[in-house]
Design brief:
This protein is α/β, with parallel strands linked by helices. The chain contains seven helices and seven strands; from the N terminus they run ββααββαααβαβαβ.
Length: 180
């Protein structure tokens, strides 16, 4: 879905150059120029076709801006989103030590953790969850699990539920070879 969505020209947002920006990049520029508001965030978010109640803010494609973005930027963005939206879904990098990922987790009311239906993925997810819960004092009830890529070669659903016995399982997604 991402590449089919339009980008915003910075000239449309009263920025000085004609840089084509994703929503997140335009938000970053607005925050750095101290002109960012929740109203602007709503303008930058793109209405998802056929989903009347869903908007999308496209992410960073400019690696330089991505590396410059600090925790305070993501906190400003999340706080603005909380002012205007009932539910905020943030698809983050799986590296919990990336700034955007950690800020999203620390400021969430629920965090969905996707784990493939195999032992290694479940072990790694449990390790990271334990680190977040113990080191950062995040309540375990905040984390919900989505089990992904179920197939005849996966561990059984019962086994996966046991591996994640500390958490609520939100759902199971079957393997789909068409999505490879």
């Amino acid at each position: 879905l991402g590449p089919s969505f339009p980008t915003r020209r910075s000239s449309d947002l009263n920025f000085s150059n004609n840089y084509v920006a994703t929503g997140l990049e335009a938000a970053y520029m607005a925050v750095s120029q101290e002109i960012f508001t929740s109203k602007l965030l709503d303008k930058l978010a793109i209405q998802v076709p056929k989903c009347n109640n869903l908007k999308l803010l496209t992410g960073f494609y400019n690696l330089e801006l991505c590396e410059k973005a600090e925790a305070s930027f993501f906190k400003i963005l999340i706080d603005a989103a909380k002012e205007i939206y009932d539910t905020i879904i943030i698809n983050t990098n799986p590296d919990v030590f990336k700034v955007a990922t950690s800020v999203a987790i620390f400021n969430s009311t629920k965090t969905l953790v996707v784990s493939n239906a195999n032992y290694t993925s479940a072990r790694n997810a449990n390790f990271i969850l334990n680190e977040l819960i113990i080191k950062f004092n995040i309540p375990s009830k905040r984390f919900k699990i989505v089990l992904n890529n179920f197939s005849k070669n996966s561990l059984s659903e019962g086994t996966m539920f046991k591996l994640f016995k500390e958490y609520e399982i939100y759902g199971c997604i079957p393997y789909n070879s068409d999505k490879e």
